[in-house]
């Protein structure tokens, strides 16, 4: 022991080599006092490697050290280690940069087991874990594992400690994840942020959506691409799928600002794409998913927005034209009948045709988590909403309830994105979706026709006429595989729906 405290590389090499043989041959038979001495020798060896000025034998000493630690870990896994497990992981933590990935993964799992609210410094431990093994680590599997651990901790403790976890851990360590060079890590971080947004009812949700916005716009800002397939941008796909899910779920919840924010991010992505189409030109599935979501939006006679939802087996479709309708999610399908659906409308979010979206006034405040909500766009005072689990019907108008502030959302930008798509889109799958779905959308007059006579039907009609005149010559990628008759049939079908 005394000799190990001095900078004698040969002595350290001989000692750690002897310890390795001892653990290898008699590890099962050793008991706590002996293990205490063995771990002390390992600790002194780590100190020697960290502080020694001699490079001779250092690599051999380090190799024997890690082999010895690995043998100790195997004993722990088999339940044959009779020493202090916590001390072993303390030593592994000291030399974690040189340990194999599997060893560090076991380490972070062990460290996370003590991160519970009953420990006074549990938040600091979580912060240090994320700092060391996510921000400062380079190995992908370890960083993703830390995000999984963080997700589990938040899911377990969010009822009481969500705000603290968001403020002290999530936002500080993930706010710049968009600049991370590892797409797998960005993808895992995006999924974590989406999961948090789905259940978050506080203003922190908007901060998380801002981080997702930066991930979504990263390829446009760095002029990356062109990407060949969605496999190259898993993080972007995850964000888009997540934002669609957030929009569809938060539409029926307060505060409405979360749904509006998700909607804006999706629209902004479409606008950015058609300004720089070369980046995602070959990844049409991303645009397809967004347009598919937007083209399913409907409005009832009170201009409340909603989506179709599948009807459970055995239920019947009944009710007024406002709240229940048989609707095909895939109108282009002729071989199989689509599952029956009904329309469910939001009690809190309505379409605004005239004013568009306005910033809050000087005296306004964001919508509360419960009760009434202040509009982040233009607002009007109406009925309080019935439970979000039921559809709004004309027979139970919201006027039965004395007060509820309804948030109004302008769909103008989404309509413009559809028109730009008809002008610029080169992928037939996306273009076909638009041409197939627009006639269905045009049947929903409350969504399309404004009470004030302001709408985008004229612009849509002009675009369709231009498409008819130019024909397939304007779409060189489509003219090879698409019949002229099919193209014009779909185009004229949309034009007829404008009448």
Automatic annotation (TrEMBL):
<feature type="domain" description="Tuberin N-terminal">
    <location>
        <begin position="3"/>
        <end position="150"/>
    </location>
</feature>
<feature type="compositionally biased region" description="Low complexity">
    <location>
        <begin position="370"/>
        <end position="396"/>
    </location>
</feature>
<dbReference type="GO" id="GO:0033596">
    <property type="term" value="C:TSC1-TSC2 complex"/>
</dbReference>
<keyword id="KW-0812">Transmembrane</keyword>
<feature type="domain" description="Tuberin-type">
    <location>
        <begin position="341"/>
        <end position="469"/>
    </location>
</feature>
<dbReference type="GO" id="GO:0030178">
    <property type="term" value="P:negative regulation of Wnt signaling pathway"/>
</dbReference>
<dbReference type="GO" id="GO:0051898">
    <property type="term" value="P:negative regulation of phosphatidylinositol 3-kinase/protein kinase B signal transduction"/>
</dbReference>
<dbReference type="InterPro" id="IPR011989">
    <property type="entry name" value="ARM-like"/>
</dbReference>
<dbReference type="InterPro" id="IPR027107">
    <property type="entry name" value="Tuberin/Ral-act_asu"/>
</dbReference>
<dbReference type="GO" id="GO:0005096">
    <property type="term" value="F:GTPase activator activity"/>
</dbReference>
<dbReference type="InterPro" id="IPR016024">
    <property type="entry name" value="ARM-type_fold"/>
</dbReference>
<feature type="domain" description="Tuberin-type">
    <location>
        <begin position="232"/>
        <end position="311"/>
    </location>
</feature>
<feature type="region of interest" description="Disordered">
    <location>
        <begin position="352"/>
        <end position="397"/>
    </location>
</feature>
<dbReference type="Pfam" id="PF03542">
    <property type="entry name" value="Tuberin"/>
</dbReference>
<dbReference type="InterPro" id="IPR018515">
    <property type="entry name" value="Tuberin-type_domain"/>
</dbReference>
<dbReference type="GO" id="GO:0051726">
    <property type="term" value="P:regulation of cell cycle"/>
</dbReference>
<dbReference type="InterPro" id="IPR024584">
    <property type="entry name" value="Tuberin_N"/>
</dbReference>
<protein>
    <recommendedName>
        <fullName>Tuberin</fullName>
    </recommendedName>
</protein>
<dbReference type="GO" id="GO:0046627">
    <property type="term" value="P:negative regulation of insulin receptor signaling pathway"/>
</dbReference>
<dbReference type="Pfam" id="PF11864">
    <property type="entry name" value="DUF3384"/>
</dbReference>
<keyword id="KW-0472">Membrane</keyword>
<feature type="transmembrane region" description="Helical">
    <location>
        <begin position="478"/>
        <end position="498"/>
    </location>
</feature>
<dbReference type="InterPro" id="IPR003913">
    <property type="entry name" value="Tuberin"/>
</dbReference>
<keyword id="KW-1133">Transmembrane helix</keyword>
<dbReference type="GO" id="GO:0032007">
    <property type="term" value="P:negative regulation of TOR signaling"/>
</dbReference>
<feature type="compositionally biased region" description="Pro residues">
    <location>
        <begin position="359"/>
        <end position="369"/>
    </location>
</feature>
<dbReference type="GO" id="GO:0005634">
    <property type="term" value="C:nucleus"/>
</dbReference>
